[in-house]
């Protein structure tokens, strides 16, 4: 859980998650929303994947990124349990 909060503390990572709420995207589609380097974006995507917040899937020559909704469900349950105690 601590790693999730650490990951979410960065505004670029939060923005990536916000963008992917709309639809699955490739890195090139995600990059259109940022003024950071491709290397920085790849770094943020990797951190989100290691935290299990993103899922990546290769389709042909492109890698598609999507939200891992099961982790978000766990996070919401944790918050609900925390505030109901």
Q: Assess the beta-strand content as a share of residues.
A: 15-25%
Rg over alpha carbons = 14 Å
Order of helices and strands: HHEHHEEH
State the helical fraction.
55-70%
Backbone structural class: alpha+beta
Distance between the termini: 18 Å
| Molecular shape | globular
CATH class term: Mainly Alpha
Sheet with the most strands? 3 strands, antiparallel
Instruction: Work out the helix count.
Output: 5
| CATH third-tier fold name | Arc Repressor Mutant, subunit A
How many strand segments?
3
> What's the number of domains?
1
| Sheet with the most strands: spatial strand order | 1-3-2
Q: What would you note in describing this structure?
A:
It is a single chain. By secondary structure, the chain is α+β, with helices and mostly antiparallel strands. The chain has one domain (2-83): Winged helix-like DNA-binding domain superfamily/Winged helix DNA-binding domain (Arc Repressor Mutant, subunit A, Orthogonal Bundle). It is built from 5 helices and 3 strands. Strands 1-3-2 form a 3-stranded antiparallel sheet. The longest helix has 15 residues, at 69-83. The two termini are 18 Å apart. The relative contact order is 0.16.
Please give the structural blueprint.
Elements (H helix, E strand, L loop, with lengths): L1 H7 L2 H12 L2 E2 H5 L6 H13 L3 E6 L2 E6 L1 H15 L2
Antiparallel strand pairs: 1-3, 2-3
Question: Can you give keywords for this protein?
Answer:
alpha+beta; Arc Repressor Mutant, subunit A; 3-stranded antiparallel β-sheet; 5 helices
